[in-house]
Write a structure and sequence with these properties.
Oligomer: single chain
Number of helices: 8
Strand order of the largest sheet: 10-11-12-9-3-13
Radius of gyration: 21 Å
Distance between the termini: 32 Å
Number of strands: 19
Order of helices and strands: HEEHEEHEEEHEEHEEEHEHHEEEEEE
């Protein structure tokens, strides 16, 4: 995802000094100076797929909503259904404009304290999201707080993630968590949120706590030999697992329905953008996000055109890599819906050459673990 040109100084996460000390390749991302890789993207990718790795995701946003109408309000701005879920549950979904365009995709944590919710949003959208949420909140009895600068977050991902957080960090209750749940504990005298979601296709945990606590957790994991991983392999991992990236597969121009995420939009309730999404689902969309397998080792980068044999351009690649895990070239592409059925044969123009490709499902990689 390309970053807008800005003169604003880059923000630093609480782990920035540690990344530099480890020799990480640093680069701007979402307004932060972030590690792209420490050794190599391939090595870090394989560490997560085969063992365990950890990511600094302290750049993500934490927005808290509380008040007597908190549940009603969050349910109104969020496409998924939060009513009826007990404390400790995490839900994925979107916030949408009234025309169905995506404000952001996010996680909603139902807090253990009544009428309290945590919204975890994308780093590039923190300010935009907070302003949008505050605007919608004016009609409700709620308080909205952006606490993003006060929280750090580490994602521990991979087949050995559970063993790592239990044995290295002593978080024994983590082993009892089901997928998309969390619990609260304390670390260094401050609140520690431990959730089990993930953005890599593997089992994994997210550790949210104070800035100082995040540094201490990171140091413990480093001493234990857990591989630090950069945003480079975070992208290759999430892509193989069929997970979208805001700005590429979702945007104000790409609705959840267009992106194939309609399952996270509960159309039997009222929420902002509901009518537009219902119409899109009923009438069909002119464009649809699909998976592509390219029958060559050439890499289909974002922005490359997708064509018919006649040379007519019918879409564009949003994300593409030569898959590290699967050893084949694959892509997400936003294309004319008429050519979206599985098995459709298309062409991808890579530089000045064209390569045959087949429409596939978007979930290229499926993990073996069950929880």
């Amino acid at each position: 995802m390309s970053e807008p040109i800005t003169n604003a100084p880059l923000q630093l996460t609480c782990l920035h000094d540690r990344h530099v000390a480890l020799g990480a390749k640093m680069s701007p991302f979402a307004g932060f100076d972030m590690p792209i890789q420490y050794t190599s993207i391939i090595e870090e990718h394989n560490a997560v797929r085969q063992r365990v790795g950890m990511f600094d995701v302290s750049h993500m946003g934490e927005i808290f909503v509380e008040g007597p109408e908190a549940e009603t309000f969050v349910n109104y701005i969020f496409t998924n259904e939060i009513r009826g879920f007990a404390p400790g549950k995490v839900l994925y979904g979107m916030m949408c404009q009234r025309d169905g365009g995506t404000v952001d995709d996010l996680l909603v944590y139902r807090e253990f304290e009544p009428d309290h919710f945590l919204l975890v949003v994308n780093a590039a959208n923190i300010d935009k999201d907070f302003a949008w949420i505050e605007k919608q909140a004016k009609a409700f009895q709620v308080t909205v707080r952006n606490e993003s600068p006060d929280w750090g977050q580490i994602a521990v991902q991979g087949p050995l993630a559970e063993k790592t957080v239990v044995e290295v960090l002593g978080l024994k209750e983590a082993a009892e968590l089901e997928f998309y749940t969390y619990y609260n504990t304390e670390f260094a005298g401050r609140r520690l949120i431990v959730s089990r979601t993930g953005y890599t296709g593997e089992d994994g945990f997210e550790l949210y706590t104070s800035l100082e606590g995040t540094q201490a957790l990171w140091d413990k994991l480093i001493v234990a030999g857990v591989a630090p991983c950069g945003l480079g392999c975070r992208d290759t991992l999430r892509f193989e697992a069929g997970l979208p990236l805001y700005g590429d597969e979702l945007s104000e121009e790409i609705s959840p329905v267009m992106a194939g995420l309609g399952m996270f939009c509960k159309l039997d309730k009222a929420f902002i953008g509901r009518d537009a999404l219902a119409a899109q689902k009923a009438e069909g969309m002119p464009r649809k996000l699909v998976g592509l397998e390219v029958h060559d080792r050439a890499i289909p980068r974002a922005g490359y055109p997708v064509e018919l044999p006649t040379g007519e351009e019918i879409g564009v690649v949003t994300t593409g890599y030569h898959s590290i895990t699967l050893d084949k070239s694959i892509a997400f592409a936003l294309i004319d819906s008429r050519y979206a059925p599985l098995g459709t044969e298309l062409l991808v123009r890579i530089r000045k050459k064209i390569f045959p490709a087949t429409v596939t499902g978007k979930r290229f990689y499926k993990p073996n673990y069950k929880k």
